[in-house]
Predict the structure.
Amino acid sequence: MKDAGVVITKRHDVIEMTEAASSSRAAKMAQEPTAQAAKRAKLLLLSSAKGGSTKTTTARNLAVAAAHAGLRVATIDLDLQATLTNWWQKRPDEAPAILHYQVPIQESEAALDEAVAANNLDIIIVDTPPGVENHPVAMRSLIRRADFVLMPTTQGGPDLDSVIEWSRTVKREGRPSAFLLSRTKRAAKSFSEAKQRLIKYGSLCPFDVRDLEDIQRTHYNGLGIIEVRGAPGRDDFEGVWAYVARELELGDG
Ligand SMILES: Nc1ncnc2c1ncn2[C@@H]1O[C@H](COP(=O)(O)OP(=O)(O)OP(=O)(O)O)[C@@H](O)[C@H]1O
Ligand SMILES: [Mg+2]
């Protein structure tokens, strides 16, 4: 491992991905099944209407946390900008494996079906593009399939307006969901105001993710923040993962 600050706890063999629904995706995967391999894969959907609300950053960090928890994890990038895919391509081979698909949102159903059928997964994490209102049919069916919808938002007023509005759409589909406050500035008054506002409209993840340079930087090295020794922000995502894992009934408890 070139990066001295990186903690890698396990090594997995990398295998080639089989042919599947889209030609534009790539994949690698650990071969050893986990204890939970026989269970149905849980689907975690990262979704909010506003661009830049940290969907992708949250998706990749939760995928890393899941992989370190020994789960078989896949990510699906539905954004043509391919930010998650670009990160995944940089992921070191010696890091715990994450299977990855990149497909247009219109093909998300097929990609999900294939991921579920082919890979004996524990969890599938789906990153959605901004402008979800442009894909109402695909988004509705994704929400319906989701075991949990996590809706990240910053603490800024327009972002809160947007995610609260979006949460109404999510709730109409009757799936469990929660807001996640991200890129937070805890010292600002708007932080507690945002918490108080969001909690009126739905569940709120009890852990927030602070606005931290180290988190931003992991886009360039294919790592999750929990893999960077001593980095601030590890606790933030460990907390978010603990919450999400419990909501998905993937935890120890
Ligand atoms: N906790 C954080 N601290 C600092 N920067 C962050 C944090 N989380 C995300 N960012 C940065 O904020 C920007 C937006 O994050 P991200 O790309 O994850 O949002 P997104 O919702 O996926 O955006 P889009 O809607 O465009 O896909 C990126 O530059 C990212 O590096
Ligand atoms: Mg994104």
Q: What stands out?
A: The chain has eight helices and seven strands. The CA atoms of residues 202 and 208 lie 15 Å apart. The two ends are 34 Å apart (CA to CA). Residues 1-37 have pLDDT under 50 and may be disordered.
